[in-house]
Design a protein that fits this description.
The protein is mostly helical. About 60% of the residues lie in helices and about 10% in strands.
Length: about 130
Protein backbone atom coordinates (compact mmCIF):
# COMPACT_ATOMS: atom_id res chain seq x y z
CA UNK A 1 0.00 0.00 0.00
CA UNK A 2 1.41 3.33 -1.08
CA UNK A 3 1.81 6.13 1.48
CA UNK A 4 -0.15 9.25 0.63
CA UNK A 5 1.79 12.47 0.50
CA UNK A 6 0.21 15.87 0.18
CA UNK A 7 0.48 17.36 -3.26
CA UNK A 8 2.55 20.45 -3.88
CA UNK A 9 -0.67 22.40 -4.43
CA UNK A 10 -1.99 21.29 -1.04
CA UNK A 11 1.28 22.16 0.66
CA UNK A 12 1.35 25.55 -1.05
CA UNK A 13 -2.26 26.15 0.04
CA UNK A 14 -1.37 25.30 3.66
CA UNK A 15 1.62 27.64 3.59
CA UNK A 16 -0.53 30.37 2.02
CA UNK A 17 -3.21 29.92 4.68
CA UNK A 18 -0.62 30.00 7.47
CA UNK A 19 0.97 33.17 6.10
CA UNK A 20 -2.46 34.79 5.78
CA UNK A 21 -3.52 33.87 9.30
CA UNK A 22 -2.45 37.27 10.65
CA UNK A 23 -3.21 39.40 7.60
CA UNK A 24 -5.59 42.36 7.82
CA UNK A 25 -6.98 43.48 4.47
CA UNK A 26 -8.86 46.78 4.30
CA UNK A 27 -9.46 49.85 2.18
CA UNK A 28 -6.88 52.42 3.22
CA UNK A 29 -6.12 55.67 1.45
CA UNK A 30 -6.85 55.12 -2.20
CA UNK A 31 -7.26 51.33 -2.48
CA UNK A 32 -7.48 48.04 -0.65
CA UNK A 33 -4.25 47.24 1.17
CA UNK A 34 -2.76 44.40 3.16
CA UNK A 35 -1.45 45.12 6.65
CA UNK A 36 0.42 42.50 8.63
CA UNK A 37 2.77 42.25 11.58
CA UNK A 38 5.25 39.39 11.41
CA UNK A 39 7.29 38.56 14.55
CA UNK A 40 10.15 40.91 13.62
CA UNK A 41 7.78 43.80 12.96
CA UNK A 42 5.91 43.06 16.20
CA UNK A 43 9.22 43.38 18.05
CA UNK A 44 9.95 46.62 16.19
CA UNK A 45 6.51 47.88 17.25
CA UNK A 46 7.37 47.05 20.85
CA UNK A 47 10.63 48.97 20.51
CA UNK A 48 8.98 51.96 18.81
CA UNK A 49 6.21 52.23 21.40
CA UNK A 50 8.22 51.22 24.45
CA UNK A 51 5.78 48.52 25.51
CA UNK A 52 5.00 44.87 24.94
CA UNK A 53 2.59 43.79 22.23
CA UNK A 54 0.01 42.54 24.74
CA UNK A 55 0.00 45.79 26.70
CA UNK A 56 -0.12 47.77 23.47
CA UNK A 57 -3.10 45.72 22.28
CA UNK A 58 -4.90 46.28 25.58
CA UNK A 59 -4.27 50.02 25.28
CA UNK A 60 -5.65 50.19 21.75
CA UNK A 61 -8.65 47.90 22.37
CA UNK A 62 -9.38 49.67 25.66
CA UNK A 63 -9.14 53.20 24.18
CA UNK A 64 -6.19 54.03 26.46
CA UNK A 65 -3.66 54.43 23.62
CA UNK A 66 -1.02 56.96 22.75
CA UNK A 67 -1.23 58.45 19.26
CA UNK A 68 2.13 56.85 18.42
CA UNK A 69 0.63 53.44 19.26
CA UNK A 70 -1.78 53.92 16.36
CA UNK A 71 0.59 55.40 13.80
CA UNK A 72 3.38 52.90 14.41
CA UNK A 73 0.99 49.94 14.33
CA UNK A 74 -0.41 51.05 10.99
CA UNK A 75 2.98 52.02 9.53
CA UNK A 76 4.61 48.72 10.45
CA UNK A 77 1.51 46.83 9.32
CA UNK A 78 1.83 48.47 5.91
CA UNK A 79 5.49 47.45 5.73
CA UNK A 80 4.54 43.88 6.68
CA UNK A 81 1.90 43.99 3.95
CA UNK A 82 4.50 44.78 1.31
CA UNK A 83 4.86 48.57 1.24
CA UNK A 84 8.36 50.04 1.37
CA UNK A 85 9.21 51.91 4.58
CA UNK A 86 9.25 55.15 2.60
CA UNK A 87 5.82 54.51 1.07
CA UNK A 88 4.41 53.44 4.45
CA UNK A 89 5.60 56.71 6.04
CA UNK A 90 4.10 58.66 3.14
CA UNK A 91 0.76 56.86 3.54
CA UNK A 92 0.75 57.69 7.25
CA UNK A 93 1.39 61.37 6.51
CA UNK A 94 -1.30 61.44 3.83
CA UNK A 95 -4.06 59.25 5.27
CA UNK A 96 -3.55 59.12 9.06
CA UNK A 97 -2.15 62.47 10.17
CA UNK A 98 -4.93 65.04 10.50
CA UNK A 99 -7.66 62.40 10.22
CA UNK A 100 -10.19 61.85 13.01
CA UNK A 101 -9.29 59.13 15.48
CA UNK A 102 -12.58 57.44 14.59
CA UNK A 103 -10.95 56.58 11.24
CA UNK A 104 -7.51 55.70 12.61
CA UNK A 105 -8.31 53.52 15.63
CA UNK A 106 -10.12 50.80 13.63
CA UNK A 107 -7.09 50.41 11.36
CA UNK A 108 -4.66 49.89 14.23
CA UNK A 109 -7.15 47.67 16.05
CA UNK A 110 -7.59 45.56 12.90
CA UNK A 111 -3.84 45.01 12.55
CA UNK A 112 -3.48 44.05 16.21
CA UNK A 113 -6.59 41.88 16.18
CA UNK A 114 -5.25 39.92 13.20
CA UNK A 115 -1.94 39.44 15.00
CA UNK A 116 -3.50 38.42 18.32
CA UNK A 117 -6.59 36.50 17.17
CA UNK A 118 -6.05 35.70 13.50
CA UNK A 119 -7.80 37.01 10.43
CA UNK A 120 -11.42 36.59 9.56
CA UNK A 121 -11.78 34.61 6.31
CA UNK A 122 -12.90 37.71 4.37
CA UNK A 123 -9.86 39.69 5.60
CA UNK A 124 -7.24 37.15 4.55
CA UNK A 125 -5.86 36.83 1.06
CA UNK A 126 -8.12 34.56 -1.01
CA UNK A 127 -6.88 31.10 -1.91
CA UNK A 128 -5.66 31.09 -5.49
CA UNK A 129 -5.47 27.35 -6.04
Amino acid sequence: MEARHPSRVAIRREVQMASDATTFRTFFGDRERVLKLNPNLAMELERATGTGISTLSKRVFGAQFYYRDLTETIRLGLIGGGETPERAAELIRTYVTDRPLSEVVPLAAGVLSALMLGSKPDEATPDDA
